[in-house]
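> forwarded from #structure-qc
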């Protein structure tokens, strides 16, 4: 948190983003509706990977396509990652 001090005025400015993205699994909540988004699918993939003992953060999976593909190949038998991995492993069987 930053503090700006002006003569006779004390103002606090927050560094917290105004809008946060809320995900329910693969789906982003937008105006009360759930919409499948790459952001939430990647977060969901990272969450499933962590249940298997992988230590990848959500941002690692979102920002590293090679790591995402590796996780998809390792976890492709888990139905929870099929949506997140559809763009990396079409058909879910590893064939290209």
């Amino acid at each position: 948190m930053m503090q700006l001090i002006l003569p006779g005025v004390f103002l606090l400015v927050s560094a917290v983003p105004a809008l946060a993205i809320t995900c329910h699994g693969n789906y982003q909540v937008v105006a009360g509706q759930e919409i499948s988004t790459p952001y939430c699918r990647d977060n969901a993939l990272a969450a499933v990977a962590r249940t298997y003992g992988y230590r990848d953060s959500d941002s690692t999976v979102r920002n590293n396509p090679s790591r995402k593909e590796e996780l998809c190949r390792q976890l492709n038998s888990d139905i929870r990652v099929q949506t997140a991995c559809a763009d990396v492993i079409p058909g879910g069987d590893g064939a290209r």
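QC bot note: The chain has a mean pLDDT of 84. The CA atoms of residues 29 and 70 lie 28 Å apart.
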